[in-house]
Amino acid sequence: MPDKIPENLLKPIIEMNYLNVINVGRYRCVMRYFYEQHQKLRYWLKPEEVFRGVRDYGLLDEYTLEQCQKDLDQLVEWKNLIPRHDGGRASTIEEYLRKKFRYQMTPYSVEIERMVEGLEKIRGYGGSLEPTLLETIFNGLRSLLSKQDGNYEEGEAARIWKSVYDAFRQLTEDAADYIASLQSSKAEELMMTEAFLAYKTALTLHLQNFVRGLQVYGMKIEGILPRITPETRDIFFERVLADWARVPKLDEPPSPEEERRRLEREWQSLVRWFIGDNRDSSDMQFLEQATKDAIAKVVRCALRIQEKQRSGVSRRRELEYLGQWFFRLSSLEEAHELAAYAFGLYRTRHFQGIDNKGTDSAEVSMWDAGPNIRALYSRSRSRRRDGGTQPMQSHKKQQEQAREIYLAKRREEEEALMAFVRQGRLTVSDLAGPVPAVLRYRLLQWIGRCMGNKSRSIRTPDGVVIRLITPPGGERTVLKCDDGELDLPDYTLIFEDAAERKQSN
After folding, report:
1. By percentage, how much of the chain surpasses pLDDT 70?
2. How far apart are CA 163 and CA 136, in angstroms?
């Protein structure tokens, strides 16, 4: 926050009224003529001179001297002009009493017209990245550090601070504008065209030179600032204030306290930009990273344009050579390696569904498992459907095949179950040799269903009662299967045919 809030911060600036009124064209022509003559060191102008100058612009054909006088009076009311009585031209008392005036621009109006003239010249952000500004700042700070005893010549301290702070302000403003221009929509459009290749080399070299200068002189400035002690800085500020005080000023000068506070704020902004503070890192690092990102962006856009240009070039000879190379390979593994080097990774596509490898083992590679068939349909809105009639499709053959597969699976399950019924009981540790995955799946299914029942028993659709007996000592065993090994408790399964047990009872 500033040390003192200006009292006129909430007041309107009436000096800018002539830029947004009904007769804005007339007022702006008058003020522009005054500004041009001010630049030529002609400060006091007569109404006739202003009238001829405005008419010479060729923009106001019906402009009259009476309108010019009214405009001058209105601009005096808005405090854009200062009138002065011109009595030297009068030859009679009547002419003297008419109070003819000469007019001069106020300081506010000069700055407003200077600002408007600068706005008219703006074509984009502008700005530049000049590493010489960093060198100027470093040389100024080195001169400050070398005069710790305060032995400055008259005006030397003010010249050092002016060169340092002017270079710092120009560096920050121009760099911010230049980086913003690279991020503008106009630059984005240019980077997509082939005309950008003509600017690519010069632009990249300009950015690289600035990064190199930032790394050299920025690091030197970052190292020299902590070496400037508060005592050396205070002596330097006193010499600067003394040099400023020796310059005569006609206007009311600011107080030494205000000048001192302004110096301290400018010094703190310089230190914060190069070194940072306890909360944030330095802005120099942000600028360096932004410049590097701009270089990467320029290179990417140039490569994209060059690849687009090469897309229409025939690559038949290269592809024939690559095809012969594939043909000479003796194994599939070598072909996979060559494809990885030649084409890289393909663009991945994600499909929703279950990956059925036929086994639950994580050791089975995807290259060893069979393919999963998925039907893909177009999601394009422009896809047209066939409006004609289509015959009824019969799926009887597929249904018969599915029925045969299901019945064969049921017969296998019944045979395995009846074999266990004839055996009477089965202990997991008694299973020798690798167990097929189908049998392991059935055993786990029976065990799970029995565990979910309080009676630890289930009844199958075929009328077989299966009871589960948990090992009393918590013994465990390893079930060896075709697709791996499974560690589980040594359960015992009792198989009984419900119909035979009822007849025996």
Report:
1. 84
2. 7
